[in-house]
Design a protein that fits this description.
99 residues, six-stranded antiparallel barrel, 1 helix, mainly beta
């Protein structure tokens, strides 16, 4: 059992973030490569008022984790373009006292 879990963890990795065009992605929607093959799954997603775009996080196969990788997300029965982006979606602006 532990070997199967370890192999599953090694073969997938968190995408960090996805910017999805048009429709917001929700949990458990499939993430597809450009050939339409399922390469991952959305863990959370919603419209972002700060960026003005639909954003999502999820897990994809290890070959698709590079920033800028074009992907697709299936929202209900339609497929929408998505791009892998770095986290955080919005840069932090809180004050850090220097020592």
């Amino acid at each position: 059992y532990q070997r199967r879990v370890r192999e599953a963890v090694v073969s997938t990795q968190s995408t960090g973030g996805l910017v999805v065009e048009k429709a917001p992605a929700r949990p458990h929607y499939p993430i597809l490569n450009l050939d339409g093959e399922v390469v991952g799954e959305v863990t959370s997603g919603s419209p972002s008022p700060c960026t003005g775009q639909n954003i999502a996080m999820g897990y994809v196969d290890i070959g698709y984790i590079k920033n800028g990788t074009p992907l697709q997300v299936q929202v209900r029965k339609k497929v929408f373009p998505a791009t892998k982006v770095a986290m955080p979606f919005v840069p932090t602006q809180y004050y850090v006292e220097r020592k």
